[in-house]
Amino acid sequence: MQKMRPPNIFVASPPQQPLENQLNLAQEILSVGGIGTKTIDGTFQYGENVVRVYVRELPGPIIPKWFGNLRIDVLEIGQITAYQNRDRYRPVVCGVSIGHPNIDAGTLGCLVEKEGNHYILSNNHILANSNKAIPCDPVLQPGRTDGGVSPDDNIATLEPYKEIDFSSDFNNIDAAIARVGDTNQTFVRSEIVDIGTPISTPCSVSLGQIVRKSGRTTGHTVGVVEDISADLSIDYGDQSAWFENQIVVKGVASDSPRFSDSGDSGSLLVDKQTFEPVALLFAGNEFGLTVANPIDLVLDYYGVTIVGTKGADA
Known about the structure:
Radius of gyration: 21 Å
Oligomer: single chain
Number of helices: 3
Order of helices and strands: HEEEEEEEEEHEEEEEEEEEEEHE
Shape: globular
Largest sheet: 6 strands, antiparallel
Strand order of the largest sheet: 10-11-13-9-8-21
């Protein structure tokens, strides 16, 4: 007996080629998809079928509103990557796989500086193994689960760090830094994969702000700030910790609603348009929510500044 298809799934032969020829696939247009369901703010609008056109970012190139009798739905999906962020990089760049030798892997958020020295910034649970590491422990690039081994892949040494409080008290950051041997960016550079060099000065975070990040697992993604003062219990596997005044982000690309996934911890969130730092990613859940520390709290605690470019107002 023929199996029935699930409801609300529309199957048809997609008219990609004629439309691709019509659009001439401008550089900003990543691909022309098939016939799908229209989405508004990531929510499916069942009952209206459209031809999907995927672009790197909005506003994009001028695209017709109709193809034949079908509406064209333009979707922003960012840059789709083949998870190259898990590779070994020399020189090292930000947004790629790193980790303490005793963890699987996380993400190198950004390069920071203090008193003429350079450090890499990520989470405590990535660089310091959730309080189990000791200062001067090595940091690998790539992380262990991506093939990193010590001492061949050592890129930095752990500095004294703020411990995560697993008692009844609250936390506001899950962050650590590790010192890099050189200060002229010949070994570790400030560029973030698929983003570029961030602005050195953070911006104020606001509800509805559109942000982006590049992480070890999901690469470059775009999200919207949904909460700027969340109080949450964070599960670290064998124990939990309470965090206050955290930033919550949700993905906005309909084809990739998850802004982050396991292994993206440590990623730097920047404003989508200005590239100003916003937050340090450290947690998420199965419903597609991402939690991040306000970046100014992280920088203030360690007394560091981000190695980046000067903003327009600098």
